[in-house]
């Protein structure tokens, strides 16, 4: 993790033969990369981002629906899967091809049959785009924008709007959306206005990457302002950034 640049760290990992291992965590079994940012945190603490977990546990109920936009290795999808139970539904949205096997393994390890995987990137239109793949130490940092001085591997990924992905999922309303997509939350939310204006999302826990948006000449205030216009209020009782309907 301390080797820089990061691609060299990935090379060293491969040379040393570092492989994923199955670990029992506080939220279930996970197939983890022990030399990744996420894996190290899980090995040390047995959990990840307690604030977001707290939101899931307070908002979701048995039989509920949860969309994990930017699912990465599926941790929050697993947490939600347990909360909503067999009668509930979870959608894990993650476009990285290298993580599809990881997602399937993690869900299988926990018998999470209520989780559906959507290998799409969420944007404001349908199409195909080039995703910049962050080194394996932090796959969650992959993005459509380049923030490194070194070149990154790229992957062509299908894009769709959040509204269309939810429609294909077959639900009318999502109780909670978790969104962490490295600065593309602008397109994801404002590109599916009706989903929020019609109040078909009960609440959203949002990772707002203001610095990424600023570099693209975009105003994060347009996202929060739009959600407020739709009747969502900032739920100040949570440490994470949450907008919920009254």
TL;DR?
With 246 residues, the chain is α/β, with parallel strands linked by helices. It has helices spanning 6-16, 37-45, 50-59, 75-84, 100-109, 162-169, 185-190, 193-197, 210-215, 220-229, and strands at 21-25, 28-32, 65-69, 89-93, 115-118, 121-123, 127-133, 153-161, 174-179, 201-206, 233-234, 242-244. Helices cover 35% and strands 24% of the residues.
Q: What would your notes on this structure say?
A:
This protein has 246 residues and is α/β, with parallel strands linked by helices. The chain is 35% helix and 24% strand. The strands form three sheets. The chain has a seven-stranded mixed sheet with strand order 5-4-3-9-10-12-11, with helices on both faces. A three-stranded mixed sheet has the order 6-8-7. Strand 1 (21-25) and strand 2 form a beta hairpin. Helix 3 (50-59) packs parallel to helix 4. The radius of gyration is 17 Å and the shape is globular. 40% of the residues are buried.
């Amino acid at each position: 993790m301390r080797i820089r640049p990061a691609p060299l760290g990935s090379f060293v990992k491969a040379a040393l033969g570092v492989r994923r291992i199955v670990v029992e965590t506080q939220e279930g079994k996970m197939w983890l990369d022990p030399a990744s940012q996420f894996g190290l945190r899980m090995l040390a603490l047995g959990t990840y981002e307690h604030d977001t977990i707290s939101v899931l546990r307070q908002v979701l109920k048995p039989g509920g629906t949860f969309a994990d936009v930017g699912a990465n290795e599926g941790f929050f999808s697993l947490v939600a899967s347990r909360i909503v139970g067999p009668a509930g539904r979870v959608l894990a949205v993650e476009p990285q091809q290298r993580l599809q096997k990881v997602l399937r393994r993690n869900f299988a390890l926990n018998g999470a049959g209520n989780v559906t995987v959507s290998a799409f990137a969420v944007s404001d239109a349908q199409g195909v785009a080039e995703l910049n793949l962050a080194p394996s130490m932090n796959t969650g940092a992959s993005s459509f924008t380049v923030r490194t001085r070194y070149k990154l591997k790229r992957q062509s990924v299908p894009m769709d709007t959040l509204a269309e992905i939810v429609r294909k999922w077959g639900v009318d309303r999502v109780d909670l959306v978790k969104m962490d997509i490295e600065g593309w939350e602008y397109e994801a939310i404002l590109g599916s206005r009706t989903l929020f204006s019609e109040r078909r999302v009960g609440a959203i826990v949002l990772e707002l990457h203001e610095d990424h948006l600023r570099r693209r000449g975009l105003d994060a205030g347009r996202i929060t302002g739009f959600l407020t216009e739709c009747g969502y209020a900032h739920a100040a009782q949570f440490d994470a950034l949450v907008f919920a309907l009254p």
